[in-house]
Design goal:
Blueprint (H helix, E strand, L loop, with lengths): L1 H4 L2 E3 L7 E7 L11 E2 L2 E2 H15 L5 E5 L8 H14 L3 E4 L6 H7 L5 E2 L3 E4 L2 E5 L14 H13 L4 E5 L10 H4 L7 H7 L6 E5 L6 E5 L2 E5 L22 E8 L4 E7 L15
Helix pairs in contact: 5-7
Length: 278
């Protein structure tokens, strides 16, 4: 599967001076319509997020969907997601998470405005989509094939600012149980981009919380789930009280990154905090 996904795509922006991106992540959709994660119907919460984006956001140039799209890796869940992404009407690009089945995703999540490309070019920016999932495991790892992709992309476009997108976190986020489930070989990513002279930013999901930081000169961002959140700073598994959300990024041609997390506060969501796993 890797070879056919290692494709590049040029995205034409609506603006001449920036690239506008929406990131949605960790939707955890089930096969059945009433599927719930920790007591929360994940289809209802995703549709609330998409409705907010459609009504209130300036039209993005692209949508990045960064893993754990499905909770049960079922064909039905991906068919539902394909329909919802098609309705967004802008180019949508995805990567798998630890709950996903990449082979099933590749079969269903393609066509129309939904693409499998992993190397995206837009304005002064290059976006590289990496697969950090490991079959049968919750933690992440970056394959040599994806390391090679990242290095080759920088060699091809050394002057472009670089956004590297993955599912798992490449740094600790301050929650003990989550920090054991990040990318095991994350240093290879930092080593790969250390000599890149333009802006460098890593963007991910997985942790179900908003995180921003910097490490070895690389800007770092994680984004809340479209469903249940995880409590920041928790030693053991704990659901958070924050509302479902998504991230809107504006990547300026000069390398500046503007980024805002939006949450859905106008709909009541019920979460079962007695459940201690997912």
């Amino acid at each position: 599967m890797g070879q056919e996904l290692a494709l590049s795509k040029q995205i034409n922006t609506l603006s001449t001076d920036c690239v506008r991106i929406i990131q949605i992540t960790d939707s955890h959709i089930f096969s059945e319509d009433e599927g719930k994660l920790l007591g929360l119907n994940t289809r209802v919460s995703l549709e609330a997020v998409l409705e907010r984006i459609n009504k209130e956001e300036f039209a993005p140039d692209m949508v990045l969907v960064t893993g754990d799209l499905s909770q049960d890796a079922s064909e039905n869940s991906y068919q539902y997601l394909y329909q919802k992404l098609q309705e967004m009407g802008v180019p949508c690009f995805w990567i798998p998470g630890n709950h996903d089945n990449p082979e099933v995703m590749a079969k269903i999540l393609k066509g129309g405005n939904v693409y499998p490309e992993k190397q995206l070019l837009s304005g002064n920016w290059q976006i590289v989509m990496l697969d950090s999932s490991v079959k049968g495991k919750v933690y992440g790892n970056i394959s040599q094939q994806d390391v090679d992709l990242l290095e080759r992309a920088q060699q091809q476009y050394p002057d472009k600012h670089l956004l590297v997108v993955m599912h798992h976190q490449p740094v600790p986020v301050g929650s003990d149980w989550l920090d054991n489930l990040g990318i095991k070989n994350a240093q290879v990513l930092f080593d790969s981009v250390q000599n890149h002279q333009a802006t460098r930013c890593f963007l991910w999901g997985h942790v179900h919380q908003d995180y921003s930081g910097e490490h070895q000169g690389v800007a770092l961002l994680s984004t809340p789930s479209t469903c249940v959140q995880f409590k920041p700073g928790s030693s053991d598994f704990s659901a958070g009280e924050e509302a479902p959300g998504y991230r809107y990024l504006t990547l300026h041609n000069n390398g500046q990154i503007e980024s805002v997390v939006h949450r859905i506060h106008d709909i009541e969501f019920t979460v079962d905090y007695t459940i201690k796993g997912y």
